[in-house]
Amino acid sequence: MLAGVALRAAARLGDGVTAPVLDRVLRTLASRHRRAFEAMAEMREAAVLIDPVDQPVAFLLSVGPQPRLRVAAKDAPADAGIRGPLVNLMDLLEGRIDGDALFFRRTLSIEGDTALVVGLRNALDGEDIDLVADLAGLAGPFRLAVPRLRREAARLTGMLEGARALLLAPVMGRLDALERRIATPAPAPRSSRPGREI
After folding, report:
1. Contacts 24+ apart (CB under 8 A), 18-22
2. Which CATH number applies to 40-128?
């Protein structure tokens, strides 16, 4: 929820304001996850568009000797693209969910150079990334309030997910029934003419 608010603000602020903030975020993450950033620095220079489909902007992650992160338009040119809801992209980054499962459920889509995306995934694989904990130091004197904000955000997210599931359950039930009906082959039409006996 907080990330969504930050992204909507970033869409209005422009690169002049967001670029220094993202540089600091990337430096902080690099200091806490040195192995992952060393692996990214060894990759060939390329750009990956990370598009939270439910937000107004995307991110352009440049890998290679000088990794860089920028807010970008959703149609920004890139060598590869990863698209999905913000919450799923964050779960993927923090290792709370398997990317293959998201891909096969069509929650996540990948475009362009898939080898580049696999290389990025391998660089981040095994890292214990926790964005809130990793970036809490950037909150200055407010960092002591971060754990409480996180608990409240998790509680609110759980309530919203429960309400969404409750509201969508009847619709999803109807869609499942419709899919089953479509998937069931229709019986072959019976001929109205009697067959000739031999």
Report:
1. 18/70, 18/71, 19/70, 22/69, 22/70, 22/71
2. 3.30.1050.10
